[in-house]
Amino acid sequence: MGTMLQKSGLKTGELPEILNISEPEVIYDIHKEYLNAGANIVTTNTFGANRLKLKNSSYTTEEVIAAAVKIARQATEGLKEKYIALDIGPIGTLLSPLGTLSFNEAYDIFKEQIVSGVKAGANIILIETMTDIYELKAAILAAKENYALPVFCTMSFQNNGRTFTGTDTATFVAVAEGLGVDVLGVNCSLGPKELQATVDELLKYSSIPVMVQANAGLPKYINNTTYYDIDPEEYSREIRIMAEKGVVIFGGCCGTTPEYIKSLSNALNGLNPLKIIKKHFTTATSSSKTVFFGEEVKIIGERINPTGKKRLKEALRENNLDYVIREAISQQDSGSEILDINVGLPDINEKEMMIRAITEVQSVVSLPLQIDSSNIDVLNAAARIYNGKPIINSVNGKKESMEKVFPIIKKYGCLVVALTLDEDGIPTTSAKRLEIASTIIESAKSYGIPEENILIDPLVLTASADQAAVMETLKAIPLIKSKYNVKIVLGTSNVSFGLPNRKLLNTTYLAMALAYGLDAPITDSTNEALMDVIRSFKVLANQDKDSRNYIHTYGNIVAESTVLSSNDDLKDIIIKGLKDEAKKVSLKLLEQYNPIEIVNEFMIPALDIVGEKYEKQEIFLPQLIRSAETSKTAFEAIKEKSITENREIIAGDKILLATVKGDIHDIGKNIVKLILENYGYKIIDLGKDVSTEKIVEAVHKENIDLVGLSALMTTTVKNMEDTIKILKNDFPNIKIMVGGAVLTPDYAYKIGADFYSKDAKEAINIAKTAFKEDGI
């Protein structure tokens, strides 16, 4: 739609959605061109029709969307097998904790769009160009909870196979399928050739139809017009390859005019779609990482549970979530692959604390979480706000438990731990455990929950109370797995309760359970004796290929000091994102160092490490932002203390940032701002939709040497080019860096920029380079 609107004379910076009301005939003609080219589905001109993007217009969301659907209905009137897809794009701002928009606010925005569109007559809901899986979840829920129409959803992936916020294809599929979408896929991003690898991954994991709407290659800006470097024939050839692999729905995104759709329709004519094969992966995910059960033993960390932990109880009562975060990080570092989160105490608000704990932990570690509570309201609230596909701990064989828990599992697509106990308690035999497991599994199926989303816990009793029952637990493992496609989890430490030398019993029983087929022990990964058992088992069971991890762990053991100096503490705190501790430690350092020394010697080295980890994809956007915010907390504390004591305040080089005129997207710019500020630069942020005149005025007033310009839409790149020309003319020595989804390095240099920044880490490198050059 955007490409055709540009050709129809859409003014730079004008909201395309307003044309639904001001020039409906233009939109009608575009729909007709695509229908005549062979399109079966027309997409409404509503990509950005949400209350935030329309707030400065004269129209409401409902008015704009109703007009758009009306035009699409007129265009398809009298035509057979033609459908109208309500187009829902990103809101345009990051959700908390990465941004300021709450999950519930995002849900309400999407609900307003969807209600308006369906009421007007749309018969498909298309959620597209998403880069944040959390935002996608809000949109899917808004669609599924309000209407029963088919829901198609696509995300945009970068060359590295991940979205802007770090989601990979396996995670996307697990979350989207779990939430019940009808079709998933990829759109925008890249050209069809560059998307082949991403498509392969989607087909590998997806059990539902896959769709692709690629760009017509990469954009090029020639004579004030945007062109794309792939012609319709080449586009169709690549799409045909995807169809032969199993993709069943195709279209086009940026640059794909009706000529592309006609060529595509001809290329696919007579080709029968491949049968979609049901996959049976058992997965739990965060927003950026998927854990597959069954490939090898997985470790579920048990330490965030107040039972028997005095210090954790105190921390929860004191709202000290930094303690919880430290526990999460220590378990991640010691080998846990999933973290159990239990915050149940009688004297706190468990639901509120669970939501806070999940949000905080997900901002610092990339591991999936297991939500552990006996309170159904807590489980429901936590499953809703969780970013990814969680494990719910737990359900059991009691009818009341299944009736309460299974609707949550079905709605949010979670895994669930199923305990083999019922109204008669924990059984003493393996046969009875199988019977209860069967009851749970069959009941789950009646809710539409597949076997692969169930983890059975056969429950171990203490050897001191009933020695014979200890072996019955182990016997139940192969018994259950031989009948059902489920994985087994087990907390093994209970076996030794009341006996001496518990460590010996725990390690021995863990080894026995693994030999019987245990898939995921719920254990303490910081306990080296238990980890020794798991690592050695993986070698002997041929799970640790070529013994790589075993050799890495034990091949060159060197004793390390656990004593940290205060400056190491501050670096560690920033890297790990411990905001509360950052303030205390930085103020303590002021007793020994001046502010500039703290920033240069401790804070910036920590941020450099975080940046390197981000570049290597060891961490992702949530962790990057968390560390930057932690550094900012320390910086603000130092600044405030320095003002009070009349000490020298840090004054960094100034950088001006702005999103150009006509562009109302500033997510990337805001992230760059946050990171640059933490390196000591003084940022002059003019915001979004900023005129060239305002930018020039600010450069002159603030004596700026480095400007950062952002543009997300092809229609606003012309404004960026015009701004650069005027800045270069008025300020010959000025340096300009640019960034945005529609830009490439060649494109950036062609419009006169000095630097192209692909992300916030690159912006830091550019700033360091720019301020070292002569004249700056």
Automatic annotation (TrEMBL):
Q: Which PROSITE patterns match?
A: B12_BINDING, B12_BINDING_NTER, HCY, PTERIN_BINDING
Q: What is its EC number?
A: 2.1.1.13
Gene3D superfamilies annotated for this entry? Cobalamin-binding domain, Dihydropteroate synthase-like, Homocysteine-binding-like domain, Methionine synthase domain
Q: What class of enzyme is it?
A: transferase
InterPro entries documented for this protein: Cbl-bd_cap (IPR003759), Cobalamin-bd (IPR006158), Cobalamin-bd_sf (IPR036724), Dihydropteroate_synth-like_sf (IPR011005), HCY_dom (IPR003726), HCY_dom_sf (IPR036589), Met_Synthase/Corrinoid (IPR050554), MetH_bac (IPR017215)
**Residues the entry annotates as binding Zn(2+):** C188, C253, C254
Pterin-binding domain residues:
297-541
- What keywords sit in the KW lines? Amino-acid biosynthesis, Cobalamin, Cobalt, Metal-binding, Methionine biosynthesis, Methyltransferase, S-adenosyl-L-methionine, Transferase, Zinc
Cofactor field: Zn(2+); methylcob(III)alamin
Q: In which pathway does it act?
A: Amino-acid biosynthesis; L-methionine biosynthesis via de novo pathway; L-methionine from L-homocysteine (MetH route): step 1/1
Which Pfam families does the entry mention?
Answer: B12-binding, B12-binding_2, Pterin_bind, S-methyl_trans
Stretches assigned to the B12-binding N-terminal domain: 557-650
Where does the record place the B12-binding domain? 652-776
> SMART domains, alphabetically?
B12-binding_2
Residues forming the Hcy-binding domain are 1-268
Domain of life where this protein originates: Bacteria
**Reaction catalyzed:** (6S)-5-methyl-5,6,7,8-tetrahydrofolate + L-homocysteine = (6S)-5,6,7,8-tetrahydrofolate + L-methionine
Biological process, per Gene Ontology = homocysteine metabolic process; methylation; tetrahydrofolate metabolic process
From the UniProt record, which GO molecular function terms apply? Answer: cobalamin binding; metal ion binding; methionine synthase activity
List GO terms (cellular component aspect).
cytosol
User: Which NCBIfam families does this one have?
Assistant: PRK07535.1
Function (record text): Catalyzes the transfer of a methyl group from methyl-cobalamin to homocysteine, yielding enzyme-bound cob(I)alamin and methionine. Subsequently, remethylates the cofactor using methyltetrahydrofolate.
Which family, according to the similarity comment?
Belongs to the vitamin-B12 dependent methionine synthase family.
Q: Per its UniProt record, what PANTHER family does this chain match?
A: METHIONINE SYNTHASE
What's the protein name? Methionine synthase
